[in-house]
Amino acid sequence: MGGRKPTGVLVLHIACLLCGATLCLPTPKISDYDVDGGRDLDIFDINEEAGLNLVEGDIVLDERQTRNSIIGDEYRWPKTIPYYMEDDLEINAKGVILKAFEQYRLKTCIDFKPWNGEANYISIFKGGGCFSSVGNRRVGKQRLSIGRNCDRIATIEHEFLHALGFWHEQSRADRDDYVNIMWDRISDGKEHNFNTYNDTTSSSLGVPYDYGSMMHYSKNAFRNGTEPTIVTKISAFSDVIGQRMEFSDSDLLKLHRLYNCSQASTFLDSCDFERENICGMVQGPGDKADWVRVAKAAGGPDTDYSNMGKCTGSGYFMHFSTGPANTGDRALLESRLLYPKRGYQCLQFFYYNSADPKDTLKIYVREYDKANPNGTLRFIKTIDGSPQDLWQLHHVSLDVKTKFRVVFEGTKQGSGNPAGGMSLDDINLSETTCPEFIWRVKNFRQVMETTPTNTSIFSPPFTSKEGYTFQMQLYPSGRAGYPGELSAYAHLVAREGDTGQKWPCPWKQITMMLMDQHPHIQKRMSNQRSVTTDPNMKATDSSQFFWDDPRKVGFEVTHTDGSKYFRGPGTGTPVYLTHLRAKSRDFIKGGDAIFLLTMEDVSHLTVTQPQPSTTVPPSNSTTAPYDSTTAPSVAPSVPPSNSTTAPSDSTTAPSDSTTAPSDACLNVECLNDGVCVVDEGKVMCRCAVGDDWWYYGDKCQYKGSVMDKTNLALASSLSVLGVMLVVTLVSVICVKKKYKKHSDGNSVVMAKIYNTEKM
Ligand SMILES: [Ca+2]
Ligand SMILES: [Ca+2]
Known about the structure:
Layout: H1 4-23, E1 33-34, H2 43-49, E2 59-60, E3 80-85, H3 91-107, E4 111-114, E5 121-125, E6 130-133, E7 141-146, H4 153-164, E8 179-181, E9 230-232, H5 249-258, E10 267-271, E11 282-283, E12 292-294, E13 317-321, E14 330-334, E15 345-353, E16 360-369, E17 372-383, E18 391-398, E19 404-411, E20 421-430, E21 437-441, H6 444-450, E22 457-458, E23 462-463, E24 469-475, E25 485-494, E26 508-514, E27 527-532, H7 550-553, E28 555-558, E29 564-578, H8 579-582, E30 588-589, E31 592-601, H9 625-630, H10 646-652, H11 655-659, E32 675-679, E33 682-686, E34 693-696, E35 702-705, H12 711-758
Parallel strand pairs: 1-29, 2-6, 3-4, 3-5, 5-7
Antiparallel strand pairs: 6-7, 8-9, 10-20, 11-14, 12-13, 13-20, 14-19, 15-18, 15-20, 16-17, 16-19, 21-31, 22-24, 23-24, 24-25, 25-29, 26-27, 26-31, 28-29, 30-31, 32-33, 34-35
Transmembrane segments: 712-735
Signal peptide: 1-24
Region (Disordered): 608-660
């Protein structure tokens, strides 16, 4: 890649920018709206302004909890947390909360489900700030506040990390080894926010101090003037602390350790081809050519995408060299076997096309079911990445419901003999929805450095499934007064003659994500902000609806291709991301930045979440709700494979029978702490059992113990032994069956998570 072409593009860019900013634009009718008043408010600033004085700024302690309480098993949540979204939440906040849950599902074993009467649940409401309790307090309805300006994904993930049992990173027992607290710079009365906890309270779970944790204060937390209150012992981390983008690797590792995570429920596969086993991918049957793992290809690319030539001895990708192949030859590259749960997936990969323009890359899935034990190929789509001198990002939506493989099929259609071919790298597959639109800004580092402040660039207009068009506005050097920042705004767009839309635009959530281009989707710390079109919102100092028809409230602009359209006012933030952070990680790769944009309908979130018909009061004496719900290692979204695996299910999940007592049990009295259950249609008492004693009888009216020397006790203990033996045998068989069924999928994914942790 030479330097001439980028510079040319850049000059063109700047020319457009200057023209756009100073010469061609009419004055807008409605001014843009800053979602947080134009200020970079961290969680603690928001709470301070709201007049809250909470422990460590955003932690609520209950009367039973002391500073030194221990995060033990009893404070943990089940792996699937019941939640209730209260009516007062902002619609945008509700949408972002669901996005935060999706990140938990993609990166951790924590899942969330609407509250269905479980004894303990998290009730999310719009309080005067952003705050949570630490751990599961077992109080039934445990409230977590997502107030004004808290509707950022990282803020919501941060509050839920508190709820899951985590304190702030700088309150760790060993923090004085890593940061200096400047006590004289802390506002009077706020010193308590810098307390540390002893090793048992704030367990570091064997993970080193993490300056990049989402749970770390920023350097200016609770300051009384302009000087930082936290000075990192390694100065390079001074501006790293306080990131509010996404979970850091260590945040995830600690969560995995506290909750014994084995797999994330929506993650399926990731491959950067750095290892020779190519992540278990295989050459498909019935073709004439092969994909080969290489570090460079004759006709391009010169480097892979994961490493961009930065590390010697690494940087591999898969290449199908079409030059030497015969016209009509195909090469199939297939993923390992995968086991979907949700039934929809997003395949994401980088594609470098240096082949003949006629050559094609097609995506298939090979689906397996009883009727087709060897799998059947189903065509999904042709990738229309024309030959270009760069790695192009592609998303493909899949809808697979059975065991499957993803198949990449390269076909040589051209007749020439060029040096090039097709190349694939950084493949990720997850059970999530694909981002709809990609806006790639080339030479982004230079754009940031050379664009004057208060000068913006616009993405192309994108039209959603429902027919609304929008675009993103980016100030690469910030709006006026925000040097060193990226500022980002979303605008609705309409063209003359557009019909079919309803105005003001009702409840569409626009998300602007700057993609962290890390090869592994679970390690990405992308930066995103969402805004929602509230049809009732009025423009500042105006009687007009903010999200009304852009032909009414916006102004006409001319696109680079000469076409004209109307652009409405923008909503967003001048403090989208600092340049310093934008230059970190893989936000810029090969010089380019990639923005992933979506517009989703969130009108269903204006409806009240249904209340469960029956509820269970919280109680500390109920039979081990923690154990019962966290014990199954199978991901929560997997339906039980069948109902005959009762022996293990009934002992590990008594909550089912206690949360939904059958009517048949109403007339049955079980004595001595026995519990009435309905087992295969039969009403019976399940009796309490201790280490060396047990209750028995149809009402648990008799007690046996090893001390009893009567024949009855012996007989019953023998029969108990016999029953236990049978139960064990049955469960061993069931587990074996289950394992056989799931082993390929689950165990490999498990191994994968542990592998990635080590990296
Ligand atoms: Ca690679
Ligand atoms: Ca082959």
